[in-house]
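As the next step, I wrote out a protein sequence along with its fold in token form, included below for the reader:
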Amino acid sequence: MPTTYILIAVVVIVGLFLMSTYNRLVRLVNRAKAAWQDIEVQLKRRYDLIPNLVETVKGYTKHEEGTLTKVIEARNMAMAAPHDAMHMGAAEAGLAGALKSVFALSEAYPDLKANQSFLNLQMELSDTENKIQAARRFYNTNVLDLTNAIQAFPSNIIAGMFGFKALEYFDLGDNDAAQQNVAVKF
């Protein structure tokens, strides 16, 4: 009779362990996905601001059509990139570099530099860049937690049984210019 109680206790303990580990993995996946959504919201905000910035700059910089065209192309490529960390990271690196060239134009055009609409757009883009960076760090932290849970013993057994996979980090690659925030100079 005591052997039966011991077996029942072992089965209950193993069941509770399986259930808690599985639920923890599900929470980690959901938290990482929610963090990814935060990144997409901030990226959408930036995509919406860029056409206004380009139109404002166009009025002052008639001879810089090539620079503005590159920004719009980079924006369109970023918007069309597959919504995964690897493709979005590469596209965002290109867009961040193109945006820096627009802000560099303001140094050559004093009237543009003093334009209130341009200054407001610069501030909004800078704020958005900071939010994107914070959202990216939050997402990558959640991916790290999930990856640790998937690879660490004994939760790796449960992760393997139920097919949990690690997510990709949101990385801007080796593009140094893209890894720095867009500079806002007044």
Confidence is low (pLDDT under 50) at residues 176-186. Helices lie at 2-58, 65-80, 85-108, 110-114, 116-151, 155-162, 176-179. The CA atoms of residues 97 and 177 lie 6 Å apart.
